[in-house]
């Protein structure tokens, strides 16, 4: 097959490709860094011609053009699989919703639970000599999504890095409806904030618990990244990577010579991820790097896969937790902040791994908008807050005041341990709350 001839026959403008969308259609913008740019602009330009166009996306890194107009919600509805700050703004505007899920189930949603997608708009790197477009930084669920699509339009961006994939990591030109050559915008960067003293304290408690040869998963946020920085400076060796999100910290650890994947029972020698977002340093690092491999999220986040990797170490941030050990990692009351993502899968998978450990980390307190210090350890989760990790699944909890293991503890033992790592300013009040709830014993005070 002459792939270049086929490519040229499908080449068109963004404006022409956007005409595929009709009122009432389901349109998919795919995921994170792969969201379309020129196609989004062209669809926004058709706003007044359209009604009830339903658009899916997730971990949105820039405001879509279709969401900018004051009356955008009269024409488009945004459906987010995982909220970023941009997704929250769109939802707050009244033109969108969050769709709850365990991220590992998303490919199956497209295979079994959702109606076929009418039109897919996604950015991809340039086509290779075999007629394939890499899914680049977001293999995630894109193959299964495209397999159920009536029309697929790829927007070529030379700045998106092609990556090696495990499987379901590319799309062939034969399956594409149109090709649009965009203006090659730079990939938005997701920089990490400088670590705080609390971040460093928590990281210093976790790193000694990591053995040589461990397989790492790091969540997004200051604490996991600080742990990654300390690992890069440590004497640890022969580490592996199997993660949902690939972040800059992994690049630092790899360049420090700590990662070789030699102890991985699966994907020997490879750093495996479902999607990636970070800085240009990371985007350059994954570009056709044979040590890095993209994979579908129903593989990377599958508890059964994670459990096969010995000494699996999972490190994640949360919003708050209660005295029963219930963890909220995604909402502030009824306000959705992010999503379940893969946290629950990795918490469970790490515990099932031989020698594995799951660490949930948080600062013990934070300053509210009124400037007052507020405990992030609460008697019970705030009404409306989402329980991301049930109390039965949590293993290690870490704050700047210590590390505890909840496995095997009853309710009053849990309350005692959790209060011991709370901010000292709030411990007495938490004890009183625990007494009212019947999960405190006089013997705790010995």
Describe the model.
Pfam families: AcetylCoA_hyd_C (PF13336), AcetylCoA_hydro (PF02550). With about 450 residues, the protein is α/β, with parallel strands linked by helices. It folds into 2 domains: about 5-180, Glutaconate Coenzyme A-transferase (3-Layer(aba) Sandwich), CATH 3.40.1080; about 195-445, Acetyl-CoA hydrolase/transferase C-terminal domain (Glutaconate Coenzyme A-transferase, 3-Layer(aba) Sandwich), CATH 3.40.1080. It contains 15 helices and 28 strands. The chain has a 9-stranded mixed beta sheet, with helices on both faces. Helix 4 (about 85-90) links the parallel strand 4 (about 75-80) and strand 5 (about 95-100). Helix 14 (about 410-420) packs antiparallel against helix 15 (about 425-435). The longest helix has 12 residues, at about 220-235. The radius of gyration is 23 Å and the shape is globular. The mean pLDDT is about 95.
């Amino acid at each position: 097959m002459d792939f270049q001839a086929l490519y040229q026959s499908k080449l068109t403008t963004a404006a022409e490709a956007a005409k595929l969308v009709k009122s009432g259609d389901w349109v998919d913008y795919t995921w994170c860094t792969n969201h379309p740019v020129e196609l989004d602009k062209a669809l926004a330009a058709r706003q007044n011609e359209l009604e009830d166009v339903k658009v899916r996306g997730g971990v949105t890194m820039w405001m879509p053009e279709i969401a900018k107009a004051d009356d955008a919600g009269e024409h488009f509805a945004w459906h987010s699989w995982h909220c970023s700050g941009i997704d929250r703004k769109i939802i707050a505007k009244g033109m969108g919703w969050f769709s709850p899920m365990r991220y590992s189930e998303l490919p199956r949603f497209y295979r079994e639970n959702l109606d076929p997608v009418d039109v897919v708009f996604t950015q991809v790197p340039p086509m290779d000599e075999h007629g394939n477009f890499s899914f680049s930084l977001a293999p995630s669920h894109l193959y299964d999504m495209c397999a159920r699509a009536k029309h697929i339009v790829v927007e070529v961006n030379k700045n998106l890095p092609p990556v090696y994939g495990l499987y379901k990591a590319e799309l062939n030109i034969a399956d594409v409806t149109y090709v649009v050559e965009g203006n090659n915008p730079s990939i938005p960067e997701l920089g990490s904030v400088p670590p705080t003293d609390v971040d460093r304290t928590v990281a210093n408690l976790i790193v000694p618990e990591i053995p040589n040869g461990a397989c790492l998963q790091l969540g997004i946020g200051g604490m996991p990244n600080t742990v990654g920085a300390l690992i890069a400076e440590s004497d640890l060796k022969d580490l592996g990577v199997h993660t949902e999100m690939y972040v800059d910290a992994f690049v630092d650890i790899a360049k420090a010579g700590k990662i070789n994947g030699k102890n991985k029972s699966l994907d020997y020698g490879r750093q495996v991820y479902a999607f990636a977002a970070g800085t240009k340093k990371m985007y350059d690092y994954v570009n056709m790097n044979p040590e890095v491999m993209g994979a579908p999220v129903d593989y990377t986040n599958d508890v059964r896969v994670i459990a096969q990797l010995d000494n699996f170490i999972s490190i994640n941030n949360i919003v708050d937790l209660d005295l029963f050990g219930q963890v909220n990692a995604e909402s502030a009351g009824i306000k959705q902040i992010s999503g379940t993502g893969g946290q629950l899968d990795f918490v469970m998978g790490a515990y099932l791994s031989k020698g594995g450990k799951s660490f949930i980390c948080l600062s013990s307190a934070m300053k509210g908008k009124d400037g007052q210090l507020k405990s992030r350890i609460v008697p019970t989760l705030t009404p409306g807050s989402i329980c991301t990790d049930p109390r039965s699944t949590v293993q290690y909890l870490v704050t700047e005041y210590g590390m505890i293991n909840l496995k095997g503890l009853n309710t009053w033992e849990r309350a005692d341990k959790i209060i011991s790592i709370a901010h000292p300013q709030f411990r007495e009040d938490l004890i009183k709350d625990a007494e009212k709830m019947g999960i405190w014993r006089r013997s705790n005070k010995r």
